[in-house]
Amino acid sequence: MWERDAGTGNEICSEMGEGEHVSVTATLLLLSPEPLIDLFLGPLVEMAPLHLRVVVQGREQYDVPLIDYLLSFRPPKGFVASLLNLKVVFSMGAGVDAFLADPDFPRHVPLVRLIDPTLSRDMTEYAVLQILMQHRQQRFYDAAQHERVWRQSIPARRTESTRIGIMGLGEIGTFMGTRLRDLGFAVAGWSMNRKRVDGIESFAGPAELREFLARSDFLVCVLPLTPGTRGILNRETFAMLPRGAFVINTARGEHLVEADLIAALDLSHLSGAALDVFGTEPLPATSPLWRHPKIVVTPHIAALSDPRAVARNVVDGIARLERGEPLLHVVNPARGY
Protein backbone atom coordinates (compact mmCIF):
# COMPACT_ATOMS: atom_id res chain seq x y z
CA MET A 1 0.00 0.00 0.00
CA TRP A 2 1.29 3.44 -0.93
CA GLU A 3 1.14 6.26 1.62
CA ARG A 4 2.47 9.80 1.67
CA ASP A 5 5.28 10.53 4.12
CA ALA A 6 4.33 13.51 6.29
CA GLY A 7 7.89 14.78 6.47
CA THR A 8 9.08 14.51 2.87
CA GLY A 9 5.84 14.49 0.93
CA ASN A 10 7.08 11.43 -0.96
CA GLU A 11 4.96 8.32 -1.31
CA ILE A 12 6.26 5.19 0.42
CA CYS A 13 5.36 1.52 0.31
CA SER A 14 4.00 0.71 3.76
CA GLU A 15 3.91 -3.04 3.02
CA MET A 16 7.69 -3.31 3.25
CA GLY A 17 9.39 -4.10 6.51
CA GLU A 18 10.45 -1.52 9.06
CA GLY A 19 13.32 0.54 7.74
CA GLU A 20 12.76 -0.73 4.20
CA HIS A 21 10.53 2.05 2.90
CA VAL A 22 11.29 3.07 -0.67
CA SER A 23 10.28 6.51 -1.89
CA VAL A 24 8.28 6.74 -5.07
CA THR A 25 9.97 9.01 -7.58
CA ALA A 26 7.81 8.24 -10.64
CA THR A 27 4.26 7.19 -11.43
CA LEU A 28 2.95 5.21 -14.41
CA LEU A 29 -0.74 5.39 -15.31
CA LEU A 30 -2.32 2.38 -17.01
CA LEU A 31 -5.36 3.21 -19.14
CA SER A 32 -6.97 0.15 -20.73
CA PRO A 33 -10.38 -1.42 -21.30
CA GLU A 34 -11.47 -3.13 -18.08
CA PRO A 35 -11.32 -6.72 -19.43
CA LEU A 36 -7.63 -6.28 -20.31
CA ILE A 37 -6.40 -4.40 -17.24
CA ASP A 38 -5.31 -7.36 -15.14
CA LEU A 39 -3.59 -9.01 -18.11
CA PHE A 40 -1.25 -6.03 -18.43
CA LEU A 41 -1.15 -4.94 -14.79
CA GLY A 42 0.36 -8.18 -13.45
CA PRO A 43 3.57 -8.12 -15.54
CA LEU A 44 3.92 -4.37 -15.00
CA VAL A 45 3.82 -4.69 -11.22
CA GLU A 46 6.18 -7.66 -11.36
CA MET A 47 8.80 -5.91 -13.50
CA ALA A 48 8.52 -2.32 -12.26
CA PRO A 49 11.36 -1.02 -10.08
CA LEU A 50 10.39 -0.19 -6.50
CA HIS A 51 10.55 3.56 -7.07
CA LEU A 52 7.90 3.35 -9.83
CA ARG A 53 4.27 3.34 -8.74
CA VAL A 54 1.70 1.87 -11.14
CA VAL A 55 -1.84 3.23 -10.93
CA VAL A 56 -4.90 2.17 -12.92
CA GLN A 57 -7.33 4.64 -14.44
CA GLY A 58 -10.81 4.06 -13.02
CA ARG A 59 -9.68 1.84 -10.14
CA GLU A 60 -7.81 4.20 -7.88
CA GLN A 61 -7.36 7.89 -7.28
CA TYR A 62 -4.18 9.71 -8.22
CA ASP A 63 -2.82 13.22 -8.43
CA VAL A 64 -2.76 14.26 -12.09
CA PRO A 65 0.41 16.38 -11.73
CA LEU A 66 2.29 13.32 -10.41
CA ILE A 67 1.74 11.20 -13.54
CA ASP A 68 5.06 10.82 -15.34
CA TYR A 69 4.24 8.03 -17.80
CA LEU A 70 1.14 6.73 -19.58
CA LEU A 71 0.56 3.25 -20.99
CA SER A 72 -2.51 3.01 -23.21
CA PHE A 73 -3.76 2.13 -26.69
CA ARG A 74 -6.84 4.21 -27.50
CA PRO A 75 -7.12 6.98 -24.89
CA PRO A 76 -10.10 9.35 -25.13
CA LYS A 77 -9.39 12.49 -27.09
CA GLY A 78 -7.98 15.19 -24.86
CA PHE A 79 -6.98 12.77 -22.11
CA VAL A 80 -3.24 12.73 -22.81
CA ALA A 81 -3.15 16.53 -22.92
CA SER A 82 -4.72 16.65 -19.44
CA LEU A 83 -1.62 14.97 -17.95
CA LEU A 84 0.39 18.15 -17.69
CA ASN A 85 3.70 16.71 -16.46
CA LEU A 86 3.81 13.68 -18.73
CA LYS A 87 7.28 12.60 -19.82
CA VAL A 88 6.53 9.66 -22.14
CA VAL A 89 3.52 7.88 -23.65
CA PHE A 90 3.89 4.16 -24.26
CA SER A 91 1.60 2.42 -26.74
CA MET A 92 0.30 -1.04 -25.87
CA GLY A 93 0.55 -2.02 -29.55
CA ALA A 94 2.50 -1.41 -32.73
CA GLY A 95 -0.12 1.01 -34.06
CA VAL A 96 -0.27 4.57 -32.77
CA ASP A 97 -2.94 6.09 -35.03
CA ALA A 98 -5.42 6.50 -32.16
CA PHE A 99 -2.96 8.77 -30.33
CA LEU A 100 -2.13 10.88 -33.37
CA ALA A 101 -5.78 11.23 -34.37
CA ASP A 102 -6.28 13.31 -31.21
CA PRO A 103 -5.85 16.97 -32.23
CA ASP A 104 -4.86 17.82 -28.65
CA PHE A 105 -2.16 15.16 -28.36
CA PRO A 106 0.96 16.95 -27.04
CA ARG A 107 3.46 16.58 -29.88
CA HIS A 108 6.38 17.46 -27.57
CA VAL A 109 5.82 14.31 -25.47
CA PRO A 110 7.64 11.25 -26.87
CA LEU A 111 5.29 8.51 -28.09
CA VAL A 112 6.89 5.05 -27.97
CA ARG A 113 5.36 2.21 -29.97
CA LEU A 114 5.67 -1.48 -29.20
CA ILE A 115 8.25 -3.37 -31.22
CA ASP A 116 7.97 -7.05 -30.38
CA PRO A 117 9.11 -10.01 -32.49
CA THR A 118 6.05 -11.99 -31.41
CA LEU A 119 3.79 -9.43 -33.11
CA SER A 120 5.70 -9.85 -36.37
CA ARG A 121 5.66 -13.63 -36.04
CA ASP A 122 1.96 -13.84 -35.21
CA MET A 123 0.90 -11.54 -38.04
CA THR A 124 3.13 -13.48 -40.42
CA GLU A 125 1.49 -16.75 -39.34
CA TYR A 126 -1.91 -15.24 -40.10
CA ALA A 127 -0.85 -14.06 -43.57
CA VAL A 128 0.83 -17.37 -44.40
CA LEU A 129 -2.30 -19.25 -43.25
CA GLN A 130 -4.61 -17.21 -45.48
CA ILE A 131 -2.25 -17.34 -48.47
CA LEU A 132 -1.76 -21.10 -48.27
CA MET A 133 -5.49 -21.74 -47.76
CA GLN A 134 -6.14 -19.90 -51.01
CA HIS A 135 -3.03 -21.03 -52.89
CA ARG A 136 -3.61 -24.71 -52.10
CA GLN A 137 -7.39 -24.41 -52.68
CA GLN A 138 -8.30 -25.64 -49.22
CA ARG A 139 -11.84 -24.25 -49.31
CA PHE A 140 -12.43 -26.15 -52.56
CA TYR A 141 -11.55 -29.36 -50.70
CA ASP A 142 -13.58 -28.34 -47.64
CA ALA A 143 -16.63 -28.07 -49.88
CA ALA A 144 -15.86 -31.43 -51.50
CA GLN A 145 -15.58 -33.09 -48.10
CA HIS A 146 -18.89 -31.55 -47.03
CA GLU A 147 -20.47 -33.02 -50.20
CA ARG A 148 -18.59 -36.34 -49.72
CA VAL A 149 -17.15 -36.04 -53.22
CA TRP A 150 -13.64 -37.13 -54.25
CA ARG A 151 -12.55 -34.09 -56.24
CA GLN A 152 -9.02 -33.13 -57.28
CA SER A 153 -7.63 -29.91 -58.68
CA ILE A 154 -4.26 -28.54 -59.74
CA PRO A 155 -3.29 -25.12 -58.26
CA ALA A 156 -3.58 -22.30 -60.77
CA ARG A 157 0.08 -21.33 -60.26
CA ARG A 158 3.15 -22.97 -58.85
CA THR A 159 4.55 -21.40 -55.71
CA GLU A 160 7.54 -19.80 -57.42
CA SER A 161 5.18 -18.20 -59.96
CA THR A 162 2.85 -16.83 -57.28
CA ARG A 163 3.58 -13.19 -56.56
CA ILE A 164 3.05 -11.78 -53.07
CA GLY A 165 2.87 -8.02 -52.59
CA ILE A 166 3.30 -6.59 -49.09
CA MET A 167 2.18 -3.02 -48.50
CA GLY A 168 4.46 -1.75 -45.75
CA LEU A 169 8.04 -2.96 -45.32
CA GLY A 170 8.60 -2.00 -41.70
CA GLU A 171 9.37 -4.43 -38.88
CA ILE A 172 6.31 -6.59 -39.51
CA GLY A 173 6.30 -6.41 -43.31
CA THR A 174 9.99 -7.27 -43.59
CA PHE A 175 9.66 -10.26 -41.23
CA MET A 176 6.61 -11.45 -43.16
CA GLY A 177 8.31 -10.99 -46.51
CA THR A 178 11.37 -13.03 -45.59
CA ARG A 179 9.25 -15.93 -44.35
CA LEU A 180 7.14 -15.96 -47.50
CA ARG A 181 10.31 -15.68 -49.58
CA ASP A 182 11.70 -18.72 -47.77
CA LEU A 183 8.56 -20.67 -48.69
CA GLY A 184 9.41 -20.06 -52.33
CA PHE A 185 6.98 -17.26 -53.23
CA ALA A 186 8.01 -14.31 -55.38
CA VAL A 187 7.81 -11.47 -52.84
CA ALA A 188 7.81 -7.72 -53.33
CA GLY A 189 7.18 -4.87 -50.92
CA TRP A 190 5.91 -1.33 -51.30
CA SER A 191 6.61 1.51 -48.89
CA MET A 192 7.08 5.24 -48.97
CA ASN A 193 10.89 4.82 -48.88
CA ARG A 194 12.85 2.16 -50.73
CA LYS A 195 13.97 -0.77 -48.59
CA ARG A 196 16.71 -3.28 -49.25
CA VAL A 197 15.88 -6.83 -48.18
CA ASP A 198 17.59 -9.84 -49.74
CA GLY A 199 15.29 -11.69 -52.11
CA ILE A 200 12.48 -9.12 -51.91
CA GLU A 201 11.83 -6.68 -54.74
CA SER A 202 11.32 -3.16 -53.44
CA PHE A 203 8.92 -0.53 -54.77
CA ALA A 204 8.71 2.97 -53.31
CA GLY A 205 6.37 5.91 -53.37
CA PRO A 206 3.20 6.72 -55.30
CA ALA A 207 5.03 6.63 -58.65
CA GLU A 208 5.76 2.89 -58.30
CA LEU A 209 2.46 1.80 -56.75
CA ARG A 210 0.83 0.80 -60.04
CA GLU A 211 3.78 -1.39 -61.08
CA PHE A 212 3.81 -3.02 -57.63
CA LEU A 213 0.09 -3.78 -57.70
CA ALA A 214 0.21 -5.16 -61.24
CA ARG A 215 2.59 -7.94 -60.10
CA SER A 216 0.70 -8.90 -56.90
CA ASP A 217 -1.42 -12.05 -56.99
CA PHE A 218 -1.80 -11.69 -53.22
CA LEU A 219 -1.87 -8.24 -51.64
CA VAL A 220 -1.17 -8.02 -47.89
CA CYS A 221 -1.64 -4.69 -46.12
CA VAL A 222 0.46 -4.06 -43.01
CA LEU A 223 0.80 -0.30 -43.46
CA PRO A 224 0.59 2.15 -40.57
CA LEU A 225 -2.59 4.21 -40.66
CA THR A 226 -1.77 7.77 -41.71
CA PRO A 227 -3.67 10.44 -43.66
CA GLY A 228 -1.83 9.20 -46.74
CA THR A 229 -2.77 5.53 -46.30
CA ARG A 230 -6.35 5.91 -45.07
CA GLY A 231 -8.65 4.34 -47.67
CA ILE A 232 -5.73 3.07 -49.78
CA LEU A 233 -7.49 -0.26 -50.37
CA ASN A 234 -10.07 1.17 -52.75
CA ARG A 235 -11.61 0.75 -56.18
CA GLU A 236 -8.60 2.25 -57.99
CA THR A 237 -6.15 0.06 -56.13
CA PHE A 238 -8.15 -3.12 -56.77
CA ALA A 239 -8.42 -2.29 -60.48
CA MET A 240 -4.62 -2.24 -60.73
CA LEU A 241 -4.31 -5.77 -59.31
CA PRO A 242 -4.28 -8.78 -61.65
CA ARG A 243 -7.64 -10.41 -62.20
CA GLY A 244 -8.17 -13.07 -59.55
CA ALA A 245 -5.97 -11.40 -56.91
CA PHE A 246 -6.60 -12.06 -53.21
CA VAL A 247 -6.49 -9.26 -50.60
CA ILE A 248 -5.47 -9.60 -46.94
CA ASN A 249 -5.80 -6.72 -44.47
CA THR A 250 -4.26 -7.05 -41.00
CA ALA A 251 -3.36 -3.39 -40.52
CA ARG A 252 -6.32 -1.10 -39.78
CA GLY A 253 -9.92 -1.24 -40.89
CA GLU A 254 -9.71 2.37 -42.05
CA HIS A 255 -7.30 1.33 -44.81
CA LEU A 256 -10.18 -0.40 -46.59
CA VAL A 257 -13.16 1.02 -48.45
CA GLU A 258 -15.49 -1.89 -47.76
CA ALA A 259 -18.01 -1.11 -50.51
CA ASP A 260 -15.22 -1.04 -53.10
CA LEU A 261 -13.98 -4.44 -51.96
CA ILE A 262 -17.43 -6.01 -52.19
CA ALA A 263 -17.90 -4.54 -55.67
CA ALA A 264 -14.56 -5.94 -56.88
CA LEU A 265 -15.45 -9.37 -55.48
CA ASP A 266 -18.92 -9.37 -57.00
CA LEU A 267 -17.44 -8.50 -60.39
CA SER A 268 -14.96 -11.39 -59.93
CA HIS A 269 -12.01 -9.08 -60.44
CA LEU A 270 -10.81 -10.23 -57.01
CA SER A 271 -11.06 -13.89 -56.05
CA GLY A 272 -11.37 -13.30 -52.31
CA ALA A 273 -10.27 -11.44 -49.21
CA ALA A 274 -9.28 -12.13 -45.61
CA LEU A 275 -10.05 -9.30 -43.19
CA ASP A 276 -8.92 -9.14 -39.57
CA VAL A 277 -9.53 -5.43 -38.93
CA PHE A 278 -12.55 -3.21 -39.51
CA GLY A 279 -13.58 0.42 -39.39
CA THR A 280 -16.09 -0.43 -36.67
CA GLU A 281 -15.15 -3.04 -34.09
CA PRO A 282 -16.77 -5.27 -33.07
CA LEU A 283 -18.03 -5.71 -36.62
CA PRO A 284 -21.81 -5.11 -36.55
CA ALA A 285 -23.98 -8.17 -37.19
CA THR A 286 -25.63 -6.24 -40.03
CA SER A 287 -22.37 -5.87 -41.97
CA PRO A 288 -22.48 -7.56 -45.40
CA LEU A 289 -18.87 -8.67 -44.83
CA TRP A 290 -20.05 -11.45 -42.51
CA ARG A 291 -22.15 -13.14 -45.18
CA HIS A 292 -20.06 -12.63 -48.29
CA PRO A 293 -18.98 -16.03 -49.66
CA LYS A 294 -15.58 -14.75 -50.80
CA ILE A 295 -14.60 -13.02 -47.56
CA VAL A 296 -12.94 -14.52 -44.49
CA VAL A 297 -13.72 -12.49 -41.35
CA THR A 298 -11.67 -12.81 -38.17
CA PRO A 299 -12.11 -10.65 -35.03
CA HIS A 300 -8.81 -8.68 -34.90
CA ILE A 301 -6.77 -11.64 -33.68
CA ALA A 302 -3.97 -11.82 -36.26
CA ALA A 303 -1.49 -10.49 -33.68
CA LEU A 304 -2.25 -9.60 -30.05
CA SER A 305 0.17 -7.69 -27.83
CA ASP A 306 1.98 -9.91 -25.33
CA PRO A 307 1.49 -8.33 -21.86
CA ARG A 308 5.00 -9.27 -20.78
CA ALA A 309 6.52 -7.72 -23.90
CA VAL A 310 4.51 -4.56 -23.24
CA ALA A 311 5.76 -4.43 -19.64
CA ARG A 312 9.37 -4.94 -20.73
CA ASN A 313 9.03 -2.17 -23.29
CA VAL A 314 7.75 0.24 -20.64
CA VAL A 315 10.21 -0.67 -17.89
CA ASP A 316 13.19 -0.63 -20.28
CA GLY A 317 12.08 2.70 -21.73
CA ILE A 318 11.76 4.33 -18.32
CA ALA A 319 15.17 2.96 -17.31
CA ARG A 320 16.76 4.40 -20.45
CA LEU A 321 15.21 7.79 -19.79
CA GLU A 322 16.37 7.81 -16.18
CA ARG A 323 19.91 6.93 -17.30
CA GLY A 324 19.88 9.83 -19.72
CA GLU A 325 19.86 7.57 -22.77
CA PRO A 326 17.69 8.16 -25.86
CA LEU A 327 14.38 6.31 -26.06
CA LEU A 328 13.92 3.59 -28.66
CA HIS A 329 11.04 3.26 -31.15
CA VAL A 330 9.88 6.87 -30.78
CA VAL A 331 7.16 7.80 -33.28
CA ASN A 332 7.64 10.66 -35.72
CA PRO A 333 4.25 12.44 -35.52
CA ALA A 334 4.73 13.97 -38.97
CA ARG A 335 5.08 10.54 -40.56
CA GLY A 336 2.60 8.78 -38.29
CA TYR A 337 4.95 5.90 -37.38
Could you provide a short overview of the structure?
The protein is α/β, with parallel strands linked by helices and 337 residues long. The protein has ten helices and 14 strands. The chain has two domains: 2-116 and 305-322, NAD(P)-binding Rossmann-like Domain (Rossmann fold); 117-297, Rossmann fold, CATH 3.40.50.
Helix and strand arrangement:
Blueprint: E1 2-4, E2 11-13, E3 26-30, H1 34-47, E4 52-56, E5 69-72, H2 79-82, E6 88-91, H3 97-100, E7 111-112, H4 117-135, H5 138-147, E8 163-167, H6 171-182, E9 186-191, E10 201-204, H7 209-214, E11 218-221, H8 235-240, E12 245-249, H9 258-266, E13 270-275, E14 295-297, H10 307-322
Parallel strand pairs: 3-4, 3-5, 5-6, 6-7, 8-9, 8-11, 9-10, 11-12, 12-13, 13-14
Antiparallel strand pairs: 1-2
Helix pairs in contact: 1-10, 4-6
Description:
By secondary structure, the chain is of the alpha/beta class. It folds into 2 domains: 2-116 and 305-322, 3-Layer(aba) Sandwich (Rossmann fold), CATH 3.40.50.720; 117-297, NAD(P)-binding Rossmann-like Domain (Rossmann fold), CATH 3.40.50. It has 10 helices and 14 strands. The strands form 3 sheets. A 7-stranded parallel β-sheet has the order 10-9-8-11-12-13-14. α4 (117-135) crosses α6. The two termini are 38 Å apart. 34% of the residues are buried. The model is unreliable at 1-12 (pLDDT under 50).
Fill in the CATH topology of the largest domain. Rossmann fold
CATH class of the largest domain: Alpha Beta
Q: In which order are the strands of the major sheet placed?
A: 10-9-8-11-12-13-14
Strand content: 15-25%
Distance between the termini: 38 Å
Low-pLDDT runs of 5+ residues are 1-12
Mean pLDDT: 94
What's the order of the H and E elements?
EEEHEEHEHEHHEHEEHEHEHEEH
Query: Going by CATH, what is the homologous superfamily of the largest domain?
Result: NAD(P)-binding Rossmann-like Domain
Helix content: 25-40%
What about the largest sheet?
7 strands, parallel
Categorize the overall geometry. Answer: elongated
CATH A-level architecture of the largest domain: 3-Layer(aba) Sandwich
Got a strand count? 14
Q: Helical region count?
A: 10
Calculate Rg over CA atoms.
23 Å
The class by helix and strand makeup works out as alpha/beta
